[in-house]
Specification:
It comes from Actinomadura vinacea. Residues 30-81 form the HTH cro/C1-type domain. The protein is 49% helix and 13% strand. The chain is an alpha+beta fold. It has 2 domains: 3-93, 434 Repressor (Amino-terminal Domain); 106-271, Beta-Lactamase. Helix 4 (64-73) packs antiparallel against helix 5, helix 9 crosses helix 11 (167-187) and helix 12 packs across helix 13 (206-213).
């Protein structure tokens, strides 16, 4: 572990980021142009004291999980993230693990979207990052583990996931999930993570097995869906998907499709997340 180099790199990255880039208001009393240490701690989900010790070269070796959180908080590029891991004495994550870290550019877009719900997903349907508006809309799904982290697995194995969509839209949504997963399978032949997921889905769900056998392929680009929200009711949302050039990650942006939905989203923002536990809706994100 190269403590001094790690400390210098983290400090310089923190000072190089403007608050507006990560969705933080640039108040009149701010003297420095970069982020404060407490803001980095908040974004990374760690203590301010630990961030201070890292920047002063006094910390123990950070875990890969903490490094990933710091890379996301500081909006590092793939090369910067790999450099961070090397300085901390860890090998950079393998390809599959890297795909599960939201790209820096997509994270910046999340911040810029502000009150517009948006999520970053892997090509296997794992939610990698959400802005606050998306958490209010769908619940927080970034901390799920095992197969539950995949949207398709929750949809086909957990009735609560389907309950957030009207019955008349459920078959359409199921078909789109399977078609999107088929497209990923074509891009990643023989991938053990994807192969295992498909095998477990086929064993767990007759519906999935039947739809998979139809061999329909389609990468989702745009859609309109209805979300049955437990706090504000029925929401009609337009969904636009931006796909990275290598198609490994997607930015999903949800906007209100009518005036009534717009008003209900405004109400949801006022209500905030108080008494709204993480994962409360399990609303399908795609």
């Amino acid at each position: 572990m190269q403590r001094d180099q790690l400390a210098d790199f983290l400090r310089r990255r923190r000072e190089a980021i403007r608050p507006a880039e990560v969705g933080i208001a640039d108040g009149p009393r701010r003297r420095a142009t970069g982020l404060r240490r407490e803001e980095v701690a908040m974004l990374a989900g760690m203590s301010v004291d630990y961030v201070v010790r890292l920047e002063q070269g006094r910390s123990s070796q950070p875990s890969p999980q903490l490094l990933g959180a710091l890379a996301r908080a500081l909006r590092m590029s793939d090369d910067e993230r790999d450099h961070l891991f090397h300085l901390a004495g860890h090998r950079p994550p393998p390809a599959d693990a890297i795909a599960r870290l939201a790209r820096a550019g997509l994270m910046r877009m999340l911040d810029l979207l502000g009150d517009t719900p948006a999520l970053v997903l892997s090509d296997l349907g794992e939610i990698l990052a959400q802005n606050r508006a998306a958490v209010l809309l769908t619940g927080d799904h970034t901390g799920l583990s095992g197969d539950r982290r995949y949207v398709a697995y929750r949809w086909f194995t957990d009735p609560a996931a389907r309950a957030a969509a009207p019955i008349e839209e459920q078959e359409h949504h199921a078909r789109q999930l399977v078609a999107d997963l088929r497209a990923a399978a074509g891009r990643r032949p023989g991938d053990p993570t994807l192969t295992g997921l498909i095998q477990r889905l086929q064993a767990a769900s007759t519906d999935f097995r039947q739809l998979w056998a139809e061999h329909h392929v389609a990468v989702r680009r745009a859609d309109r869906k209805t979300i049955l929200h437990p706090r504000v009711g029925r929401l009609l949302m337009d969904c636009e998907t931006l796909v990275t050039p290598d198609q490994s990650q997607q930015l999903l942006v949800l906007t209100p499709a009518d005036a009534e939905t717009r008003e209900r989203l405004e109400l949801l923002r006022v209500l905030g997340i108080e008494d709204f536990p993480a994962g409360a809706t399990d609303t399908p994100a795609r």
